[in-house]
């Protein structure tokens, strides 16, 4: 019996290669910048942050959170990572731009050279074979398209065909393609759902040639006793630890959590143990403490593209507003980090002396249904405040509500230390602020929810936004997680 390894952090759509003694995993980063995060591991159980592929992409008003524009639930999706003839390749589609990006580098630390592949390829996988390059992509109808020599678009007259379809699936048709050539055959791994209910299932199809018929079906329908939602969408990797599939599981508010599952090849097909022990992965450099003395650590990502004219790091993280925002979602320069479950809390101190009336600054458990603990200024006086949002629209609809003020407490100071505790066993966040007698709860425990409006797991986030007059500044110091 071999162990499976379970990540307790939102790292969706993993694609993994083994190169020069290490496993490298790339993940979806959507509307967060820098993006294209790559993790590294020597033995699959311990993983660390390694690099990002890009700082920003095409700068658009929506990516900059100008006015009421945004790209929540969009951005960089489902990347593929490959190494071929001395070069690393990362490619992914961006559904707010409806285009496909391709990055190349000789080192995973960069620098990366950016180009584009003409067309939009959903959940694509990149294959190099006999001097040619192909992408496999799509939902329900899975396409194979040959690329031209400079990888800028489809090859004129090249191979272009549907190789698998999942017509009639009322839940989720086949998608999340990962294609490989192994021992002269072509193996295509994908996710879809059971047809009678939502449950992730991994499928595999095989062909002797790219022109031939791909045949196969479901190969993995299991949840390892972790959560009854299935485990799927990922690829395979072979290294010194043997053969593994790295997929992920929908896990509520904490997000989509990867699972590393061992298997053996038998007669050209993966065979999985009937029973596996499950061990938690050890993660480093993916979240943590920061005093923002003269910068910020690599585990931070901005929600949408940052505006460097409105922020600085000098004995703290300074944010100045330049617009009036309807709610937390439209706050520019919100700084976020992933949360490792199942139980985590964060603490930060906020100096609010330069806020304007109507400004709010604080710490949140950040996703569509958020909980926010912070400080606000009204008529020249300061208050501790707890805000929450419970989205009322469809799962893709970003809430434009102002947020519910659950409690507001007068302060005698323009500085406040707040704490947010997240419990992903119950998907709740509870907010606190520090008074003369220590921390006290403010507001009520708030229900968190993974929604498609953000399409990401809950994060800790530092935000400052104006509801009356732009130009206020907040300073965050002494951020700690436990």
Question: Could you explain the architecture of this structure?
Answer:
The chain folds into 2 domains: 3-284, Glycosyl hydrolase domain, family 43 (Tachylectin-2, Chain A, 5 Propeller), CATH 2.115.10; 301-481, Jelly Rolls, CATH 2.60.120. It has no helices and 38 strands. It has strands at residues 3-6, 15-19, 22-26, 32-33, 35-41, 46-54, 76-84, 87-94, 99-105, 113-117, 125-129, 132-137, 141-146, 160-165, 175-182, 185-193, 200-207, 215-220, 232-239, 242-250, 256-266, 269-271, 277-280, 282-284, 301-303, 311-313, 317-320, 335-338, 343-354, 359-366, 371-378, 381-388, 404-410, 415-423, 428-435, 438-447, 459-466, 473-481.
- Tell me the strand order in the biggest sheet: 4-25-28-37-30-31-32-33
Number of helices: 0
**Biggest sheet layout:** 8 strands, antiparallel
Number of domains: 2
How much helix is in the residues? under 10%
Query: How would the global form be characterised?
Result: globular
Taken as a percent bin, the fraction of beta residues is over 45%
Summarize the structure.
The protein is mostly beta strands and 482 residues long. The protein is built from no helices and 38 strands.
Secondary-structure topology with pairs:
Layout: E1 3-6, E2 15-19, E3 22-26, E4 32-33, E5 35-41, E6 46-54, E7 76-84, E8 87-94, E9 99-105, E10 113-117, E11 125-129, E12 132-137, E13 141-146, E14 160-165, E15 175-182, E16 185-193, E17 200-207, E18 215-220, E19 232-239, E20 242-250, E21 256-266, E22 269-271, E23 277-280, E24 282-284, E25 301-303, E26 311-313, E27 317-320, E28 335-338, E29 343-354, E30 359-366, E31 371-378, E32 381-388, E33 404-410, E34 415-423, E35 428-435, E36 438-447, E37 459-466, E38 473-481
């Amino acid at each position: 019996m071999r162990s499976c390894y379970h990540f307790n952090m939102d790292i969706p759509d993993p694609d993994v290669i083994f190169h020069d003694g290490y496993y490298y995993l790339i993940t979806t980063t959507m509307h967060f910048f820098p993006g294209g995060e790559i993790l590294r591991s020597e033995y699959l159980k311990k993983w660390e942050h390694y690099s990002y592929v890009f700082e920003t992409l095409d700068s658009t008003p929506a990516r900059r959170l100008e006015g009421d524009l945004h790209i929540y639930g969009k951005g960089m999706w489902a990347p593929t990572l490959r190494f071929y003839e001395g070069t690393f390749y990362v490619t992914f589609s961006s559904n707010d731009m409806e285009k496909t990006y391709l990055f190349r580098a000789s080192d995973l630390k960069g620098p990366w050279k950016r180009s584009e592949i003409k067309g939009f390829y959903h959940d694509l996988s990149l294959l190099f074979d006999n001097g040619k390059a192909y992408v496999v992509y799509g939902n329900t109808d899975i396409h194979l398209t040959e690329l031209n020599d400079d990888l800028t678009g489809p090859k004129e007259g090249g191979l272009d065909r549907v190789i698998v379809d999942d017509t009639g699936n009322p839940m989720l048709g086949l998608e999340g393609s990962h294609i490989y050539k192994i021992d002269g055959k072509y193996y295509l791994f994908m996710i879809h759902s059971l047809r009678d209910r939502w449950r992730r299932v991994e499928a595999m199809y095989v062909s002797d040639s790219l022109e031939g018929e791909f045949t196969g079906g479901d190969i993995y329908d299991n949840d390892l006793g972790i959560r009854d939602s299935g485990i799927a969408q990922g690829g395979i990797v072979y290294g010194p630890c043997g053969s593994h599939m790295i997929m992920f599981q929908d896990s509520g508010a904490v997000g989509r959590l990867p699972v590393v599952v061992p298997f053996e090849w038998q007669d050209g097909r993966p065979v999985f143990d009937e029973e596996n022990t499950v061990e938690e992965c050890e993660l480093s450099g993916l979240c943590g403490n920061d005093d923002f003395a003269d910068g910020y650590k690599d585990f931070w990502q901005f929600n949408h593209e940052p505006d460097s004219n409105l922020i600085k790091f000098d004995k703290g993280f300074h944010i100045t507003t330049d617009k009036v925002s309807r709610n937390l979602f439209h706050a520019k320069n919100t700084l976020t980090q992933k949360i490792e479950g199942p139980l985590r809390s964060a603490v930060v101190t906020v100096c609010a002396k330069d806020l304007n009336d109507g400004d709010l600054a604080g710490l949140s458990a950040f996703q569509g249904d958020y909980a926010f603990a912070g400080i606000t200024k009204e008529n020249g006086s300061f208050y501790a405040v707890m805000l929450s949002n419970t989205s009322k629209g469809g799962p893709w609809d970003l809430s434009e509500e102002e947020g519910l003020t659950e409690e507001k407490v007068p302060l005698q100071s323009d500085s406040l230390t707040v704490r947010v505790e997240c419990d992903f066993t119950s998907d709740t966040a509870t907010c606190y602020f520090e008074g003369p007698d220590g921390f006290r709860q403010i507001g009520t425990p708030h229900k968190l929810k993974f929604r498609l409006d953000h399409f990401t797991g809950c994060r800790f986030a530092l935000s400052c936004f104006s509801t009356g007059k732009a130009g206020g500044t907040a300073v965050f110091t002494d951020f700690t997680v436990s």
